[in-house]
Structures are given as structure tokens and as C-alpha cells.
Amino acid sequence: MNGTSTESFTKSRSGSSRVLVFLVVLFALTTVALAVVVALTVLKVKDIENLVPVATEPPSTAETESDICLTEGCVMAAARLRGAMDTKVNPCDDFFNFACGTWIQKHVIPEDKSSFGTFTQLGDDVNVIVKGVLEVADKHDDPEVVTKARKYYKACFDEKKIEDLGLTYIQSYLTALGGFPVLASKPGGNWVAAGFDLVNLLVRTRNGTNILPLIDVGVVQDDKNPSKYILYVDQPNLGMPSRDYYLKERNATDLMAYQTMLEEIAVALGR
């Protein structure tokens, strides 16, 4: 009986020893791991403290300038845009005057125009260029359309021929349009109400003279699809510079002068 008790005690003691050894080893490994983590953390903090800030180098001048258009056209366009701006205005408060304020201050609407803008100014500049093209002598390699335009332009300055022709050309043209009622039976007149066709008259007037008496009709590129062309209908060009003239008193000086001119033309055609 004593032998059995001693054996059981020995086995129990051996099991406890193994558990104790395992716990000691586990504690030691945990301690080592903690020590390593703490050491690495301390080293990392020291590295951060010793880190010297380094500024990023700005892009080279060559790289910056390569992205800027410095051609003559770009420089001129930039100058025009800058010259139109009013930088004293806050764009967040009034962007229109910020972008166009100086241009508006430097330009006024001419007396012969109802409006004026950059496109109007551009059109005037183009007219000056075209005038220069029309006034030079023909060259052998000039397109036919250019030589014809020069002949037409120069014909307007041939006053002797204009005087020699007198009213014959305009009278024949009025007859082709159906006649001018004011002239009655005289050359250029002979208008017949029964055969009058307004649509036909407008078409012939548009094709022959580009005069737009009632409506302005033409063909333009579609804003929504530039690859297509569409028909547009607009108000016509007025005989006087703008509608404001027609809203004045009936006996206004400029209105009476316009009426007198029309009367004198009619009288001259009827002589």
C-alpha cells in the first residue's frame, strides 16, 4: 500500500513540473517578444525625431515653359484678353465686368451701328483686309472668284460708266422683279397686281441682290452638331442703322432725311 502511494505521488509531481516548465518557457518567450517590440518602437521614434525635412524641388524652368504657348498668335490673344479684363473687380461678385470691364470702358457703340462687340470689331478688321485684297492688281494664279470680286469692286468706282448707263440697269432689274408700282407705266414699272407672287419676289430679290426686305433667311452650321447645316430665319436688316431710329417722333430730323432720300430716288426713276 505504501508503494502504491509513493508511485502516485511521483507521477503527480512529474505532471506538475512539466506544466510549470511550460509556463516558465511561455512567459520567457512573451517577455522577449515584448522587449523586441518596445525596442523597435523606441528606435522608430528616434528615427522620426532625427528626420530632417527635405523640400521638394520645383519643376525646372524648361519643363514649365514647355507647357506655355509663346507663339505670336498666343501672345497676341493673351494680350487682348488681358487688356479687356478689369482686375479691380472681384470675379466672384461680378464676373462679366471682371472679364470685359476694361473693353467696355474703351469702346462705345458707333452712331451707324445698333450694337458693337468683339465680333463686330473683327468684322471691321476683316473688311479692311478684304479691301486691300480687292485693290491690288490681278495675278495669273489668282482664283477666278477673286478676280471677279475685283472687277465688281472696281466697277463701283467707274463713275463715268455709271453716268453713261444712267438708270437703264436698275430699270431693267426692277422690270425683271415684276415692276415698281410707284413708276406706273414708265420703265421699271408696269406692275400687275393679278400676277404678283410675294414668295417668288422674295426669292428673286434674295438671289439677285442679297436684299432681305421682310425676313432674313440663310444657311448656317448647326450649333448642336457642327457637321450639319440648318436653315435659319431672322429679322431683316433695316434701311436705317437700327430700330431706334424708327421709334423716334415722326418728324425727327433723321427720319425726315431718310424719307426725303426715298422720295428723291422714286422721282429720279420716274423721269
Explain this structure:
With 271 residues, this protein is mainly alpha-helical. Helix content is 58%, strand content 4%. The chain has eleven helices and two strands; from the N terminus they run αααααααααββαα. The protein has a two-stranded antiparallel ribbon with strand order 1-2. A hairpin with a 7-residue loop joins β1 and β2. α3 crosses α4. It is elongated and about 145 Å long. It starts with a helix and ends with a helix.
Q: Which structural class matches the secondary elements?
A: mainly alpha
The tally of helices reads 11
Strand runs, count: 2
The biggest sheet amounts to: 2 strands, antiparallel
Helix content: 55-70%
Return Rg in Å.
47 Å
Termini separation comes to: 164 Å
Q: Tell me the strand percentage band.
A: under 5%
Q: Based on CA inertia axes, which overall geometry fits?
A: elongated
Strand order of the largest sheet: 1-2
Mean pLDDT: 81
